[in-house]
Amino acid sequence: MSTQGSDLVKVLIDGVSMVILGERAELIKNGYIYIENGVIKSFGAGKAPEEYQYPELLLSGSGRLLLKGFASGFTVLTLYPLRYKVDFVDWFLVKELLRSMRRSDMYYVAALSLAELVSSGVTEALVVDVYLDEVARAARDIGINVTLAPPLNCGLNDEQQLQELKLLLGRWQGQVEGVRAAIAVCNELKEKYVNVAKELGIALYAIDIEEEVEKVPKSPEIVLVNPRTAPERKAIYFGSMLRNWQKGSGLGIGVRASYSIREALKELIWMKKVDPLEALIAGTKTTSELIAYEDSSLIREGARSSIVVFNMSEPPGWPLPDTLDSAARAIIEGNLRIETVIVGDDIVLDKEGLLTVGYEVFKKAIKKVEEVYSSTLPPP
Predict the structure, then answer these.
(1) Distance CA 57, CA 35 (A)
(2) What is the pLDDT of residues 106-120, one digit of tens each?
(3) How far is it, in rounded angstroms, from Cα 128 to Cα 362?
């Protein structure tokens, strides 16, 4: 693996229970998963085959439950330091923050918010925000997969956002594993924005669009964000619009007090009376696919690893579930501790501690962010 100070490439987790969310969801008890160079080579019930029993890192899965990592289908990082004061995506407030925020400040904001995402089990996120070149740097350092979409027609400077897109395409897209580019458009899906996505071959995320869904073109790849209705269209919901969630849709964090998809899944279950297993699929596999991470959306042979391991060996969390439905309910509604997160060939989190970025970075980040945000308050 490429964790700091380590060149391990072969990892075996043995004796672990696993929730597998493929065409046929199942709970594997006392199984194994073998990862090599960030790719899942083998997994299944029982002991690992002889050829996989001599890894460079062996992790005990006793009392542990393993799941494909969570995904956030819409995330705003600039508002993270204000998440206890702001409960909706306010682009006007983002614009105000830009008056006092320098480009380099965004790295520290992103590092803090992405670290919280990883600590809550999120391994992929669509980030719609400003200074995304700095977000890409932070994502690489933290060890989380991101799709980065500059917001157009959202009340910010579109020219600056298009310049940011050029940076993403020139420095990151296709060159750094785990950083992908897209665009996001607010309110009105103008032809010029559609053409940008089409010419560049990237996805477009249409936020709160006013057009009737039937009139939205199906090419390029267009994902609707918080549509009022989305029959047979790809869609992602977050915030109060979770009330419109439909089966087959994804979901995101947006901005909320807890940057945790599990909290959003709880709301979905309570609000829409969704089955916990169906909600779990939405918060993992479905959302990963919608934000361009189909290659890590499932636990399957040949997939990029994107894994969360819960410690259920003792309270809180104990006992290990013995059915698929109880496992889904435990993950979403239980108070399970996330012990390990593996993304690609990085062990990002282990023993509940972040391994990729140290304390000194966070100490500096907190100081920087407090300086920038101290004079910025949300409107009354």
Answers:
(1) 10
(2) 999 999 999 999 999
(3) 23
Distance from C-alpha of 35 to C-alpha of 44, rounded to nearest angstrom: 12
Q: What per-residue string of b and e applies to 362-375 under the rule 16 or more CB within 10 Å gives b?
A: eeebeebbeebbee
Which domains are delineated in the chain? 10-68+305-354 (2.30.40.10), 70-290 (3.20.20.140)
275 CB burial (10 A radius; 0-12, 13-18, 19+): middle
The sign of the CA dihedral 162, 149, 129, 106 is negative
CB 97 within 8 A of CB 78: yes
- Asked if residues 252 and 73 have their Cβ atoms less than 8 Å apart, the reply is yes
Give 234-250 pLDDT, tens digit per residue: 999 999 999 999 999 99
Quote the DSSP letter at residue 305. P
Using the structure block, give the residue that is written with the tokens 């709301």. Answer: 267
Contact (Cβ atoms closer than 8 angstroms) between residue 332 and residue 279: yes
* Side chain identity, residue 96: E
